[in-house]
Specification:
alpha+beta, 37% helix, single chain, 11 helices
Length: 314
């Protein structure tokens, strides 16, 4: 086999509940992941030594060394199957998912690399086994393999598919003119929480409160009612993202005023996400947002869509 190409989707967090900072620096999460039709394409080919080429959206900001999550995923896979004849590879990533935008583009590329190498090296690993490897690389990698709509716990890597009908939702993504670092947003959340005045009687509870799955959101997803889903979108990181990127408030307000059923910051931001009633309303909303001057560019997407999948193998 001379090359394998995999297509992999961006993710949204319809809910992102963040627990207190743990001793290891991470936060426990409860999140509702949702894969949407904005895809990166990753090709893996045998080579004399490992290497990477990145083209497309934000290519100049993607690391081309061992800091790249796709290369780290390949190293993790080699360690998991040391007896399978895994050779050096060259990875080519064609990006459409913006970099550092809260859409898990790097994790998506790592997931695609795992699927591609599984095919190229004929390792025969199952999706759960790939998810286990992916979880060691990044918190969102396992979901990029799974796709659809799923509940994530732990750091997001413990996944349960959501019990919801195959309703198609229509989204508009407003891309910001700038980036946000995920660690910086979490640090800002910790600062905001530490500075928030609390009732002394509740402070101990607040310090140890674990995040909960939003029952109202899950109920809305089970009905397939876009209006209800829009009302229940939530993201604990949103205030922190807006504190670092104040222009997001104007973008969110504009989208709601233009008729979005719901709005929130995607993950750690700075992309803003808007839910529309249908494809026609999504088009109208995208055109209006683009003309309002509140974002760099927009994209219309739908979801849920499947996770990383082979599109060609030569």
């Amino acid at each position: 086999m001379t090359g394998v190409t995999v297509r992999v989707p961006a993710k949204l967090n319809l809910q992102l509940a963040v627990g207190p900072r743990r001793a290891d620096g991470y936060h426990d999460l409860v999140t509702v992941f949702h894969a949407v039709s904005l895809f990166d394409q990753v090709t893996v080919e045998p080579a004399g030594r490992d290497g990477i080429t990145v083209t497309g959206e934000g290519a100049d900001r993607v690391p081309a060394d061992q800091d790249n999550l796709a290369l780290r995923a390949i190293e993790a896979m080699r360690a998991a199957v040391p007896d399978r004849g895994t050779g050096a590879v060259h990875v080519t990533i064609a990006k459409r998912i913006p970099v550092a935008a809260g859409l898990a583009g790097g994790s998506a590329d790592a997931a695609a690399a795992l699927v591609a190498c599984n095919e190229l090296w004929v390792t025969g690993l199952t999706q759960p086994q790939l998810c286990g490897i992916g979880a060691t690389v990044g918190s969102d990698v396992a979901f990029a393999l799974l796709g659809g709509t799923a509940v994530g716990r732990g750091r997001g890597e413990q996944l349960t598919p959501a019990l919801a009908p195959a309703t198609q939702y229509h989204w508009v993504l407003a891309f910001a003119d700038g980036q946000l670092s995920t660690p910086a947003v979490y640090a800002a959340l910790d600062r905001l929480r530490a500075a928030r005045p609390e009732d002394p009687a509740e402070s101990d509870v607040a310090a140890t409160a674990e995040p909960d799955l939003d029952a109202a959101l899950m109920s809305a997803l089970r009905t397939g009612d876009a209006a209800r889903v829009g009302q229940q979108l939530s993201n604990d990181l949103q205030p922190a993202a807006m504190s670092l990127f104040p222009a997001l408030r104007k973008t969110l307000t504009a989208g709601l005023e233009l008729g979005a059923l719901g709005a929130l910051v995607a993950g750690s931001g700075p992309t803003c996400v808007f839910l529309a009633a249908n494809a026609e309303r999504a088009l109208e909303l995208a055109v209006s947002l683009s003309g309002a001057g509140v974002c760099r560019s927009v994209a219309r997407v739908s979801g849920p869509v499947p996770g990383a999948a082979v599109v060609s193998a030569e």
